[in-house]
């Protein structure tokens, strides 16, 4: 065997050795499902409540199926970390949904939003609900809304719609704010495309689903009153 043949054989042996190392690594990486790797197998403090909300067997113990269901809910609403853990934020979001559902067609049953103002838009921060009423008669809603987060809360009190812009562009946040109706400084009703239950919340505006924001645009006018009350969970 000449020098060239010996060198070529050595290189081939090295290449074969590298290949034998790489193949098992590739197989191992490919065999580990990303979701399983990121799943939190710990039983959360709100395990039973979350299981019941999701229609899972209520045994108070985290399972792989529980984790998958919780992760799906978290991904849908932008709850992070998306680990399938039944923690406080996930349950807080679900509990808000339950309160919204319980409101039914009588969101102002307690009479907190004024019924002596004629046409008025009510915003309940506690339940993250809004509706429009005329006197005591419900005109639209209730609908879920996404209000200000901790530090930029939607301000409470009696307000009035003072400026409307159907295709508003915020130069402050550099974002589109369709169907914007301003009622308190820079705070307004306007549509967004994200989930209404996406935490932690807005910069103070009352975010709405596009169809609801459009309905508010058609029902409200400058001078119509807005009443904001309650306290958003987590603020």
From TrEMBL:
Q: Which GO terms describe its cellular component?
A: extracellular region
Keywords annotated in UniProt: Cell shape, Cell wall biogenesis/degradation, Peptidoglycan synthesis, Signal, Transferase
Molecular-function GO terms, alphabetical: peptidoglycan L,D-transpeptidase activity; transferase activity
The L,D-TPase catalytic domain extends over: 118-229
For biological process, the GO terms are: cell wall organization; peptidoglycan-protein cross-linking; regulation of cell shape
Transmembrane residue ranges: none
Give the domain of life.
Bacteria
What residue range is the signal peptide? Answer: 1-36
Is Transferase given among the entry's keywords?
A: yes
- Active-site residues are 190 (proton donor/acceptor), 205 (nucleophile)
Keyword Nucleus applies: no
Q: Pathway, per UniProt?
A: Cell wall biogenesis; peptidoglycan biosynthesis
In terms of PANTHER family, this protein maps to: EXPORTED PROTEIN, L,D-TRANSPEPTIDASE
What's the protein called, per UniProt?
A: Murein L,D-transpeptidase
Species the sequence originates in: Streptomyces termitum
Q: What is the lineage of its organism?
A: Bacteria, Bacillati, Actinomycetota, Actinomycetes, Kitasatosporales
């Amino acid at each position: 065997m000449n020098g060239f043949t010996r060198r070529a054989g050595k290189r081939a042996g090295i290449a074969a050795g590298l290949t034998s190392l790489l193949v098992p690594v590739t197989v191992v990486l490919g065999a580990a499902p990303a979701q399983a790797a990121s799943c939190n197998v710990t039983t959360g403090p709100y395990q039973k409540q979350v299981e019941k909300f999701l229609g899972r067997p209520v045994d108070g113990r985290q399972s792989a199926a529980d984790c998958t269901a919780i992760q799906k809910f978290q991904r849908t609403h932008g709850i992070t970390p998306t680990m399938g853990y039944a923690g406080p934020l996930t349950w807080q979001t679900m509990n808000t949904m339950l309160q919204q559902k319980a409101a039914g067609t009588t969101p102002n049953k307690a009479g907190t939003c004024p019924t002596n103002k004629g046409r008025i838009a009510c915003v309940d921060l506690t339940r993250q609900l809004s509706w429009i009423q005329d006197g005591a008669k419900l005109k639209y809603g209730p609908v879920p809304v996404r209000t200000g987060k901790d530090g930029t809360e939607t301000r409470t009190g009696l307000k009035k719609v003072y400026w409307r812009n159907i295709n508003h562009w915020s130069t402050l946040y550099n974002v589109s704010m369709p169907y914007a109706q301003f009622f308190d400084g820079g705070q307004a009703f306007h549509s967004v495309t994200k989930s209404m239950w996406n935490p932690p919340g807005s910069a103070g505006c009352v975010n709405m689903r596009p169809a609801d924001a459009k309905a508010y645009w058609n029902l409200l006018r400058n001078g119509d009153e807005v009443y904001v009350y309650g306290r958003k969970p987590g603020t």
